[in-house]
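JOB MANIFEST
job_type = single_chain_structure
chain_count = 1
residues = 143
[input]
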Amino acid sequence: METDYLKRCFGNCLAQALAEVGKVRPSDPIEYLAHWLYHYRKITKAKEKHTQEKTQLKEEYDDNLKETKMTEILKQEEYEIQQKYEKCHKPLISVASSTKKTIFKQENTKPLEKEALKQESLPGTSNMLSEIPQQFSSFDSSG
């Protein structure tokens, strides 16, 4: 029963420590054995920590790689949607803009037409309009 406990807790660590004590034959074997066991535990914990960090870094790298691939896929889909949108709506945009231009032109000419009609309806203005070009032509010939 004690051997099971020792195997479970020490594994082959105790066997390695005792073999080292036998090989080195220090003056104080108990102190040497204690230092060796502390050093062994320190190294074992450092290896475990390193393994955990390595595993965590690998997981983070894999997650980042998946995220990068997903971002690329989303950008590609967005580009394709944009292309489809431009292809489908380009004729509508040009038709709508030309319609707006014609409406704008019509709206701008209406006040001018109204003003011309007002001037024609006022008494004495129709004669003045026809006389103005004659005055300029007589001025050019005299000048």
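[summary]
The first helix runs from residue 2 to 10.
Residues 110 and 140 are 33 Å apart (CA to CA).
exit_status = 0
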